[in-house]
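Wed. Picked up where I left off yesterday with Elongation factor P. The coffee machine is broken again, so keeping this brief.
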Amino acid sequence: MASTADFRNGLCIHFKGDLYTITQFQHVKPGKGPAFVRTKLKNVKTGKTIDNTFNSGVKIDIARIERRPHQFLYKDDMGYNLMHTETYEQIALPEELFNAPDLLKEGDNVEAVFHADTETPLYVELPAHVTMEITYTEPGIRGDTSSTSSLKAATVETGATIMVPLFINTGDKIKIDTRTHAYVERVKA
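Structure written out below (tokens, as returned):
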């Protein structure tokens, strides 16, 4: 058991029968009344974020989670097959546990997060940015920036569709943010 004094960003706790990660917290000591802690909690399974206020000193249950390095091998009817990079143990995980499965290439390194007590996989995180090659996009017409967005659709090597600036062409390599599926920059060869 821990208390609100142990709060820190990234701490995983048992709350309302589910696992939540603390994404933000603030200790508040008003002039009148008892101190409290304002938090933003992210549900580990659904990804939904909620606001909650804890009275200062309240006891909480901390959940032990472990981040383990894995490499994506291939996808089949069992799911996404990963290999632990240190023990070479292989596991198959369902698509719902991945934050951006459409941006995953064979050989990519990911972090699988497990509940340490029950050894159940919670979710799999890709790196914040991945580099992909554009396999198809319409050519941009010079001077065609009259539209407000100046973006066009492009298909990358995994089959995902990303909105990119008009100057990006087929064969270019781009960096993509895996959390938002947004174009970041063109990668020089």
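Quick read: Residues 129-187 form a domain with the OB fold (Dihydrolipoamide Acetyltransferase, E2P) fold (CATH 2.40.50.140).
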